[in-house]
Specification:
Layout lengths: L11 H12 L4 H16 L4 H14 L7 H8 L32 H19 L5 H34 L17 H5 L1 H10 L5 H8 L3 H16 L1 E2 L4 E2 L3 H7 L9
Antiparallel strand pairs: 1-2
Helix pairs in contact: 6-10
């Protein structure tokens, strides 16, 4: 850089800007805003709590002098201002700071609450089983998949019941695959369902257990296959075809991915 060129990083530019700002006349809007700010500051009444806090902080910042009664008592016992307490003068040199207590709980309650919270965290950490991130991701994915299968099974059982009833089928073991729900409608119709169940034939428990022991995926496959073979109904198309030939020709396939 030549000597003739000015360094824009120097303080000269800043000093020039400050000098210009000091000599510049304020506009009417700037003067008006300044007046409004001053009026608001003058008219602002501080809350009592804020006034007490400011007065307390002002008092705590003041050092005790010889006129203070506590200081007089200490000096009579050999204390010298600026030194520490104790025979070896190794104690504190300033009064113990005030720790204001918030809330209305009893003395020591805050400590107990902190202790309980810390113990709860330690207990939770002790119970928490460390799991590999990849295993956790797979677990969450499987749970989501099972939840989706459960919804599909519930819908498939409903379609199966409807078509069976339309064709005068009184019972079907596939109806037992309907997932248990906590809907209010079922609670209101609990008595009606009990009466209907009494009329329906009871299937051997081992057959029901064997059917429910299947994975959710295979349970859904059994329902979908029954609907296709019996009523030419495709669960994934949500449509009923005229016959098997119509189903095989116009339905994309037996799997959800085919649709």
């Amino acid at each position: 850089m030549s000597d003739e060129e000015e360094d824009y990083m120097s303080t000269k530019y800043l000093e020039t800007a400050q000098a210009f700002e000091s000599t510049r006349k304020e506009t009417y809007s700037e003067r008006r805003k300044k007046q409004l700010r001053e009026q608001q500051e003058k008219g602002y009444i501080k809350p009592r709590a804020q006034l007490e806090k400011e007065e307390r902080e002002r008092g705590l910042k003041q050092h005790m002098d010889e006129k203070n009664k506590g200081m007089k008592m200490l000096m009579k016992m050999g204390f010298k201002k600026g030194s520490g307490l104790g025979q070896q003068q190794s104690g504190i040199m300033e009064p113990i700071a005030i720790d204001l207590k918030a809330g209305r709980s009893g003395i020591g309650m805050d400590t107990q609450l902190l202790k309980r919270a810390r113990e709860a965290e330690e207990e939770e950490a002790r119970k928490r089983v460390e799991i590999d991130p990849e295993d956790y991701r797979l677990l969450m994915a499987q749970r989501a998949k099972d939840a989706q299968y459960t919804r599909y099974i519930a819908a498939a059982v409903s379609v199966c019941e409807k078509l069976d009833e339309e064709n005068k089928v009184e019972s079907n073991i596939l109806w037992t695959l309907k997932p248990a729900t906590l809907s209010t409608e079922e609670e209101e119709k609990e008595e009606e369902e009990k009466e209907e169940e009494e009329k329906k034939p009871v299937y051997p428990q081992d057959m029901v257990d064997k059917l429910k022991a299947l994975s959710l995926e295979h349970q859904l496959e059994a329902l979908v296959e029954y609907l296709r073979d019996t009523y030419f109904y495709c669960f994934w198309c949500r449509a009923k075809y005229d016959d098997k030939q119509d189903l095989d020709t116009n339905c994309p396939g037996t799997e959800e991915d085919d649709h």
